[in-house]
Amino acid sequence: MWGKVLGTIFGFLFGRWLGAILGFYLGHMFDRSIKQNFDKVGGFQSLFKGEEVSERQALFFYTCFSVMGHIAKSNGRVSEIHIKAAGVFMDEMQLQGESRQEAQDAFRAGKSNDFAYKETLDEFKQRFRGRFDLLQLFLEIQIQMAFCDGVLSDNEKALLQQAAKTLGFSSSHFAFILKRYQAEFKFNQQRQQFHGKYNNQQRQTSNAQSAMDREQALAVLGVSQDANAAEIKKAYRKLMGQHHPDKLVSQGLPQHLMEVAKRKSQDIQAAYEYLKKNPA
To answer: Topological domains (Periplasmic): residue ranges (predicted)?
Structure first.
């Protein structure tokens, strides 16, 4: 609004009514640009500190682990693989002491028969409305839990689809995210195989990338087999922007979950580097 007001005033001072009209138009364009950038970084989120941010991060933390527990229980009982996966996830976040206990309590709450799955997701959506990248990361984390054993059961998929719909994602976008994660899962398996063979980090990364075939790398970036270099680069930049840790934290991501965003960024980077070195 202020862009239009100031543009009109200054335009009138320098060019009378013709200048005012031109100033109004330029001010309108300025307002649109500012609003787009403002919304992109989370609106007024960057102006709030302390308690409000802490509450938002606490809600993300609780919802993340409680929904994970609910999905893990969807087949009747929580398997040892799911329990181990939850523990590994907590290790990755470097949760210890009280923070780890809170995560475990939330996970157990999600496993209970009276857990309000839909209501929990509804509240989560309301608090993080408009923060697409953060909501997408949340959904990716839930897919990670469901797919930790390499299999996605019908019950798990149904719950994930319900979560995606509640959070505002279309069925086609959910399928896109799911396909990307399945490729990411295979990529991580390959990297783990190389982890014990190479002490030098550079050699390890190089060999892990060599193990990736082109089809898998393209799937990690979410592009088709016939994608050209420009399309691959565009997809890479978009995904890197969506998973930038600092941006996600500014939108309400708990600091503990920064490592998750960093790992996803590393996977995206590795896939892109592979495709640059192995063009079609």
So the answer is: 1-4
